[in-house]
Amino acid sequence: MYLKRLELKGFKSFPVKTDIIFKEGITAIVGPNGSGKSNISDAVRWVLGEQSIKSLRGDKLEDVIFAGTDTKKPMNYCEVALTIDNSENQLELDFTEVTIRRRAYRNGESEFFLNNKSCRLKDIKEVFLDTGIGKDGYSIIEQGKVDEILSNNPLSRRKVFDEACGISKYRYKKQEAERNLSNTKENLERIDDVYIEIENQLKPLFNQQTKAKKYLEISEKLKTLEVNSFIREIEGIEKELSEVNEHRKVIEKELNEKEEQKNVVEKKQEDINKEVEVLQDVIEKSVDYINSIKGVISKKESQINLIKERIRNFTNEISRKNLEIKDIKEKLNENKQYIKELESNKLSGSEELSTLQENIKVLEGSKDKQKIKLESLNNEIELLKESIIDILNKKQEFSNKLSTLNANKENMNIRDENINSEITELNKNIEIKSSELDTINKEFNMQNENLKNVNNRHKELSINLQDSISEHNKLEDEIQKSKYNLNGYNSKLNVYIDMENHYEGFNRGVKEVLKNKNLKGVHGALGQIINVPEKYEKSIEAALGAYMQNIITDNEFSAKSAINYLKQNNLGRVTFLPLNIIKSNKISLGNLKANTKFIGIASDLITFDEKYRNIIENILGRTILINNIDEGIKFAKETGHRFKIVTLDGEILNPGGSLTGGSLKTNGNILSRKRYINEYTEKISNIKNEISHLELKRESLDKDVKNIKNEIDSHESKIKDLEKSIIIKSTSIKNVESEIESLKGSITKLENEKNDLNSNLNYTLEKSDDVRKDMEELDDLYNKNKEKIDALNEEIKRYNDLYDKEKSEFDELNLSLVKKTEVYNSIVRDIKRISGENCELEEKNKQLEESLNYEEHEIIKLQDSILTEEKEKENLTKQLGDSNRNLETRKIAKDDLKNSFDEINKELKTIDRQHIELKESLFKVGGRLERLKTSQDTYINKLFEQYDMTLVQALEIKDENLDIDRKFLESLKREIRSLGNINIDSIKEYEEIKERYDFYSEQKQDLEESMEEIEKLIHTLEENMKSEFEIKFEEISKNFKYVYKRLFGGGCGELTILDKENLLESDILITAQPPGKKMKNLNLLSGGEKALTAISILFAILITKPTPFCILDEIEAPLDDANIFRFGEFLKDLSKETQFISVTHRRGTMEAADYIYGVTMQEKAISKVISLKLKEAQEITDII
């Protein structure tokens, strides 16, 4: 068994369908960084069920789908298929080739296929159990797998060893068994709950069904007695209603007289009330006026007190301000005397400063002149020195040039001879390469043209294939949708057929008669023989009521035979309708059709076999259909409540005036079942025809797709061959062109060099003479400049002495000036400060004097205000006394009117009491009438509700001679009441619950036995795992020691189980001793030593239990060249048992490979794979 083929389409950087064919042995996948070579190992891991997108170097599922480029659109899905050769039947599948396919879409959906059949990830895992193949096995070894072995996480390390020791299949089975055990426990708990619940229901239901049967027997006896009792009660109530109506008329007359008397007295009362209201208004206004005067007087007193307080405040303030003015004047006199002294000091200081400044100015001018002269002389000397340095440098430069020119002249002559010889040789090589290039170009152009034609056809086929697949998918969706609808309609049809066959909705007795095919002359229930339009179903069902369950027979003898069958088997009661007896009872329409509210007579709105017309018209011939209850009420009044009226919502207006309505419980869909069965049968037939048509189209498309795929595969093979050949030719063309250009460039360089040599030789001879002349001129200039520098140095010394003397005098004068200036500035600041202080004092004094004048004037004004306020207060006090006297007079007049009002009120109360007594009498009479009518309606409603009869129908069975024994009637009712709540459905429910109880008892027992078997299985699996792990681990440990020595060239490696008592969970210790070193824990090894140790473990596992194929993704990257060589040699040995596919960039690994795939990225973000043998790879090593 080995990996035969890998197909990629739309996965990461492989947008175009890419087939990679693998052979047994070692295959290397190479390419530059970023070319997409690791995407191949990612694809294998993904198709084997990798769920973690992060381990595939992405963040979300759509990251594995080709994202598009500037020139190529992104894809909506990706697909990877992995084909394994199973000719040796190592996989437990009856196929020589096994293909695993995984497809993912941008919406997050993902699907798996096993040999092109849809499957679950679980199915794929089970196929590869115990083979080492899978995302958690050791068939894919990458740097991450190496890290797992080196990891401190014992669980990561255990996964690798579990798979290698062959216990992963047991662990998987154990996990499955534990899940099954958990599910079984949950199921058992649920069944226990249901079992207990059913058990609790069973006994009460048995008692209920026993009571229900007894109830049905007693109820039939009670019906005859109670119906006649209701009729006699209704007739007695009708007589009493007439007497009560006469008494009501007398009371109404007396009541009218009392109302007239009451109106006269109320008029008198109203006049007195108006006078009282007028007086009350005047009194209230007087009280308001008195209160307002009191408020004004209070305000005046407060105002006087406030004015007096302000006068006291002003007097105190005047005394304080006079003292402050005196202090200010004394301070002003002191400040003026001090300013005179400061002004005198300021004048003498100013004169001293002027004299010093004049002397400094004169001395500074002389000093600056000396400084300028010195700077001028120094600058002149510096220029002369620079000139001398330049002269010396130039002399040396000219001497060097002269030596160089002589040497160059000799070299140029030798090089000229060599150039002529090289140019001749290069021209011969160009002629040879040009001939070779012409031949390769012709071959390259032919292959390019062929590739273009094949590519165009391939694109055309790909478009056709995509269109066909898209159409195929659409057809598949339509077929699945139609099948889904078909299943839905089939389910619904089966439900209604089942209901029809089992007579759902019919009472037990009706069901039993209809089921018994031995009974002759039975036509069926009334609800079965009629067809009702959908819009009238609710109305007709309400109109029929219990009639729907009546059974039609040929004659009374057939009915009698069926009744005997029911009696003998105690199956309940049924009403029969003999065809030979029942006559039509249809009403005459007359003018009814003209009424806009009228829809029709119920019997005319349904269809049925003509032989049943008499029965239908007898039951529904006097029932009229109306739109709604409001129209029904109006229609009933217009027709005198003579007909049974039914609305479209199922409300019933009975003859005589009673109404029935509310929510309507449908009777098992008896009327609508036939309609649904016909509708669903027709829909199912249409859908089946549609599915057949679509499947024929799909088959035709499948053939087209297969043909196109075969042609595409053929073209893709041609494209690969042509691309490989073109790449080689292109490389050859580039190499030859590069060589020719290189040769031509060399000739051009040589010719340019020859020309330059001739020019340089002539120039060299001329330049030598010029250099000698320049050197003589430089010697003369040097001597002259030296003499000038000596003369200038003498003059600088004289000017320096004079400058130092004047600078000393200047510094002394400046210091004296600074001191004098500071004293002067201090005097000026004091004068300014004191002058400012005087201004502030004068301003404050002025403000205080102005304030004193204002306050003295205000005191005079306030004293005048007090006199005015006291005079106004006296006038207000006088007005208050007059107003109080007028108020008392008005209060006395109001009390007199109140006494008159009380007398009239007593008279009115007497009339009111008499009026209320009459009203109460009238209300009682009205109540009596309502009670009688309600009582009458109650008996009519009881007839309909209890026995489904109108008053007219009840009168037809009236028996004047029937002796109604109330005691017997009550005894029957007591007997029914003693039965308690009756559940008629309990008879059927008991049978159903008993059946469920027996079913769950059996289920419970099965689950308990299943739990016991699963627990035994788990124990067996654990024992097998321990035994298998112990044996295999010992073998791996032994092989590890061997591999370690071989890969390291010596040393020792060991594997140890830390907890031998707990083999299945224990951590595994890895220790290593590289050659020449002590035994160490993994953490103490270098990076390369760690990697090689982990590789040794993986190779030991492969020796112990070879996997059919193994993908290595750059696991040897950390190794040095010596270790790479040993790694490659060992890989060759292992390849005898295991097929290796190595993603690598190391030359040593490539050299060990039998085949090489080159991954390139000629177009940005799009990878391309080239398959080569090792010898062919040598030709395009530079490309890779």
TrEMBL record:
Binding-site residues for ATP, renumbered to this chain: P32, N33, G34, S35, G36, K37, S38, N39
The keyword tRNA processing appears for this protein: no
One Gene Ontology cellular component annotation held by this UniProt entry: cytoplasm
Compartments reported by the entry: Cytoplasm
The organism's place on the tree of life at top rank: Bacteria
Keywords per UniProt: ATP-binding, Coiled coil, Cytoplasm, DNA-binding, Nucleotide-binding
Domain notes: Contains large globular domains required for ATP hydrolysis at each terminus and a third globular domain forming a flexible hinge near the middle of the molecule. These domains are separated by coiled-coil structures.
Protein name: Chromosome partition protein Smc
